[in-house]
Amino acid sequence: QVQLVESGGGLVQAGGSLRLSCAASGRSFSSYAMGWFRQVPGKEREFVAAISWSGGEPLYADSVKGRFTMSRDNTKNTVYLQINSLKPEDTAVYYCAARSRRPWVVGRTVPNEYDYWGQGTQVTASS
Questions:
Q1: Would you call 72 exposed, middle or buried from its count of C-beta atoms within 10 A (0-12, 13-18, 19+)?
Q2: What is the arrangement of strands in the sheet containing 2-7, beginning at the earlier edge strand?
Q3: In this structure, are residues 117 and 2 in contact, taking their beta carbons and an 8 Å threshold?
Q4: What are phi and psi of 89, to 5 degrees?
Q5: Percent helix, percent strand, percent coil in the chain, to nearest 5
Q6: How many beta carbons lie within 10 A of that of residue 56, not counting itself?
Q7: Which helix (H) or strand (E) holds 100?
Q8: How far is CA 37 from the centre of its chain?
Q9: Alpha-carbon span 34 to 109, nearest angstrom
Q10: What is the pLDDT of residues 53-97, one digit of tens each?
């Protein structure tokens, strides 16, 4: 069982930056691949980024590539999402998620492939 708590969201001017954190509690955090997703009302949850249990090069959605950076610190049981050059279309509730399924490259962009979810944190870009 893994519990996930996101933080760091807020209201930021377009072009600004934010760093989201996702703190995990429970066992074996380092055995979970992690993902960030986002959702706006009336739309499906959208993949943002994912990283394997050991770290390494994350996978990004095309819409955030070059602006968002995902990382993890297994010593702190935490994953991060650095958001730069924020755009109004980035406005959403951001969720982190954990999955234990192997291989991690299969299904890593699909919300149903994740086992645990946080409660979400709101990110709003003002224009």
A1: buried
A2: 2-7, 18-26, 78-83, 68-73
A3: no
A4: -75, -5
A5: 5, 55, 40
A6: 9
A7: none
A8: 5
A9: 10
A10: 988 899 999 999 999 999 999 999 999 999 999 999 999 999 999
